[in-house]
Structures
1.
Amino acid sequence: MPTKIEKDTLSGRETTGHEWDGLKELNTPLPRWWLYTFAACCLCALVLFVLLPSIPYGPGYFHGLLGLSSRATVTADVKGMEAQRGVFMDKIKTMPIEQVKQDPQLLAVATAAGRTVFASNCQPCHGPGGEGRIGYPNLADDTWLWGGKLTDIQQTVTYGIRSGNEKARISTMPAFGALGVLKPEQIEAVTDYVWSALYGHAAEGADLTPGRALFVENCVVCHGNNGEGKRDVGAPPLKSAVHLYDDTREAVAAQITNPHLGVMPAWERRGNNTGLDPATIKSVALYVHALGGGE
Amino acid sequence: MTSHDNVRKATAGEGKQSHAGLYAAQVTVYPKAVHGPARTFKWGVLVFCLAVYYLLPWLRWDRGPGRVSQAVLLDLPNRRFYFFNIEFWPQDIYYLTGALILAAVGLFLVTSLAGRVWCGYACPQTVWTDLFMWVERLVEGDRNARMRRDQGPATIDRLWRKGVKHAVWIGIAFWTGGAWIMYFADAPSLTARFWRGEAGTAAYFFIGLFTFTTYLLAGWAREQVCTYMCPWPRFQASMLDEQSLIVTYQPWRGEPRGHGKRDGSPATAALGHCIDCLACVHVCPTGVDIRDGVQLECINCGLCVDACNEMMVKTGQPKWLVTWDTLAGQKARAEGRHEKYRPFRPRTLIYLAAMTVALVVMGTALATRAQIDLAVQHDRAPLFVRVRDGGIRNGYTVKISNKTQAPAEFELTLRGLPEGVMALAEQSGAPAPSQTLAVDADSIGTFRILVFGRPAPQAGGSQALDFMLRNVASGERTSYASVFLGPGGNGR
């Protein structure tokens, strides 16, 4: 309690009565309503302390009388959104995929859903923008192994490629080198032909005639007379600037000798409730189609 | 200094306690009615400001069929701000910066010229407090009647008067809060929805909030807001100098003050013009004594000037004992000189220059505002796509803002990429050097554009590509500088 309230001679005002090493403070009283407002704010804080989650204790915390929980709110929000989206997804489920594309509202929903599904399921192999990588096709370019129409993409996503699913897209390329179908020098000759005539790189002084003959004999069945590829069997076009297993001569030779055969899982819903439902698969197919290469 | 004097007087009056204490009770101010030029001017400003505030949202402005027809509207859900014939989009927010700079410098200029006229006449706190005091005077009578009734017993007379006063106050406060929300939605339809109970939580919340704050601040807090809450009085002293016009008592003329008729009798012959009637104190809305000089609480409303003039006339003395003058002018007069008021001084000229610059910049920007806007975002992944024929394709998201009030077609072309062609993703049609894109009235069209080309070999994987946009009908143009990426740079 301040005891030595005195009048300051210079200003004519009272001091607070406090003194610190000879320093005295002039009394400038706060308005009393300020004090009450401050007390009211403190009271509000206390009330909130009781109503809202506040005190942590070891493994848990005091939940507050209102039982407010951000997590529960989010869960409810997500449920609400799913219900909202469910209406559209049900429509997408029953509609042919081309028809979905014609409906701007459904297309917007499907593309938005497709984007997130793509990001969590397809991106690890095909990249965030569908750009692919060596051995995993670029989905944004104009080259398709099995077809780039909406229904083609839908089928590929649903059943996969060499996935073991009974409706999977399946084909194989003989291991010309490993099985001894072609001798090493023949493989070199075919490689020269493919590298130079189809991939379009200069081959210094190579005679392409034997390579062409071997190509006609062994490869055109699937890859086409001019290397245009054949989608029925997923044979990539060779007369192209886009190459699944890289644009190097070594990669060509390696593929002829002992080919990679890519695998993509089937995404249809399986017995153990994994995989994607039909509406989601249509959504992701629509999204992939829109990456830039859709046909 | 005077507020502390008031506080001391008040607390001293409470009884035995002779010290001020660390907390001071609010001293009720009972301003007396007054007549005169300052009061008339203050009424004029009050009516003007309130009329603008209450009625502006109801002003209609024809923008064409199906369009917003309110002159001033802050349409938050649709992100548009309509101000008469100007329509602001969110990206125009820097105009707000300009307007705030103008307002601040304008306030500085006015203050350095004529003191706190903002505080005295135009500040919402002053305007609504004045309005509430007028209601108070109508219901409870003038200063003396109010003081007598407040000090007397709680009679029926006092109760009904207080009741009516507070009811009217709350009514005005409610109207004030109601007018506020009208700026955020179509006023007539919002009013209808409000009374049907369909106006939405935000509308009711803000009406409630502003009803409460208006009632509290104008009815109860009054001068406490100016003295304790408002930052402006705290630093306005730095705008004032000895050349600023302020409301001032002329001590050289008034002192020594004293009662008594100035009839040349020996009792009053030595006295100045001030008869110490306290009329200036009684009319003051913040309860200060102007004769103490410049002080924080004084809002420069000049009501004391009117009050003093009245008394001077009654006592047969010259008017303007309390007047508008500069500190320098008063100093000169005390010494018997006369000093001219100098409105043009470095301080005011700097403020004027700053205002002119802000005005010119704002005006130019507004006058040359584009009705067209283009933004282009290059795809991040993949940066480019190699297509089968060896060409390169880049993807872009193109946003076209059509700020006109009619649907418009825009022609998009490329510059910087020889033989570059483009196509709209997910649309049939061969790639072409230009694309015509339709955008609705007053909206942004978003398009995904695929550009096919072969970057120049020397470009190192990245070359400049400009998107050129032209409004087909009006010919207005704009462009956006982007890049076309290919192998050889950061990509593979």
Note: The interface with chain A takes residues 1, 4, 7-8, 19-26, 221, 224, 228, 379-382, 385-391, 393, 395, 425-426, 448, 450 of chain B (CB under 8 Å).
2.
Amino acid sequence: MEELRCMALLNAGDEKALQHIFSLFYERLCFFAREITQTDLQAEDLVQEAFIQLWKHRNGFDSFRSAKAFLYLAVKNGGRNQLKHQKVVLKHVRAQTEPPVERAVLHKMIEAEVLAEVRKALDQLPEGCREVIHLCYFEGLRNQEAASRLEVSINTVKTQKLRGLRMLRMGLKHFPFFFLFLTGCCHPFCLLSCL
Amino acid sequence: MDELNPYFDIAELAGKFLQGVVTDEERVFLNAWIAQDYQNRILWENLTREPYLQQQLDSFKGKDPGAAWQKLLSAIRSAPDEEEVVLAGSARRRFHPIFRYAAAAALLGFIAYIGYRWETNRPVASPGIPVVAKTFDDIQPGTAKARLVLGNGRVLALGASAKDTIREDDGSRAEAAMDVLRYAAATSNLSEPAQFNSMITPRGGEYKLVLSDGTKVWLNAASSIRYPTRFTGARREVWLEGEAFLEVAGDPSHPFVVRTPKTDITVLGTCFNVKSYTDEPYDRTSLVAGSVRVSTGQGGAVILEPGMQSTVTTGERIERRDANLEEALAWKNGLFVFEHESLESICRKLSRWYNVDFRFRDPAYKTLRFTGRLRRGDHITGLLHMLEAAYHVRFEQSGLTLSVGSR
């Protein structure tokens, strides 16, 4: 869904627009929230509540970025309250309940954003690596599960994941061969790892 | 909420960089941000390191976004628009109506930079450190690994991937899974005398242990603990070298005793940290909860209350004072916490965790003091760059030895 249209629909109270925003940001927010809460369940709760708040204030956003910023802040803010509560419960174990440093939280947000971008780019790699990457990073399969699904060895899965990253990091600019192989539907690194 | 924009910009540039589509101009901007301070540099080191990226990507996938969406949908549908929306299943946690103001207030704190304090007599380096500096790529942070020596002398390797059931000649049983070895509670029909097992972590390894009485032990790197597979006598005794955090299962009729080369620690049921490395100048016991009695071979003894620590130096003098629990338990919480700590002492800790040796080209550097807090899972490069920037010191790597000296 295109950004402007999506925001207009959100303002108008369209659930489809909310769903689109949810699909864009849910996982990175969970990743971010886990830094704050330590347990996955609490993290998911925080993110849910953030989206509920977004929906309540749905008139106030004009771009994905503004919605995203609101969501991150809502998660962060909710996490602070949760921590306060825990602190009372676990008063005697001081060291464990120190709230994360603000700066570290900001950096976690950057990390969540970068990882989401990298993951998206990995999903657009040519065939070969992509299958492995999609299974592992998007469907959440473990290496072993992906290996048996694709009927390859676990080592192939591991190398293909690494190849994928390497392909990205080399970047198109530094890798003219890429265009040659694009027509052949497979990247040389994928070919290598398939051998 | 525009205050977050600079961070989103950086994240976008970093993403572009990783895909190799960053322009020269953007690269300059990115470099300036990285050079701004060491925390940015650490983040950058992490994000541009393959093993780190992969590990993070593996844990990135949320659990079942589809189900989460359905839950959200039913939450917003069931709530009348004018009223507050309450998340299904957690009805008591309501957002306060002044959420907007709370968010604004949080934002102020969010943006505020809580700096790290630097303590050094030398001037802080100008941000002239090249962005693409040397990296110490083959030095990795520690992981869950240990060796287990059984009563019959057999040695087993324990690692994050090993899942194993270990049966002893005396009939006792232990399960190794991920990063913890768990002994089954002793059954009464065991007639054989108990065997002694030892768990040994190498440098760059740590492991957890649950003893047959339910006592939990977190064993830090370069440490060993010897214990019976089940406790039979009037006292529960274990022998420790190195560092461990213990949560002793309560059993007043069987006192628990930790013996280290310098001290004996007698406890009833409690949580405490014991640090007793042979290459450290002192033994230190830090008490979180309960009560312990620390005694030396010379007859000196103190009783600790929660929040206190005892220090035993080589002269076997024993001292008691308020503990810095955050510092003492940092390792267990996945952190390095340095409070006005000498570079020599910091390097000892780093060598145990990253499995590297440090050699001081100039002994004067040993006494430099540093205060800061870092994650143990981070790559060593960022950390070393940070020390280099703070001290005008230089680390040079040859093999697994880092020599410390002037620039």
Note: Chain A has two domains: 1-123, 126-195.
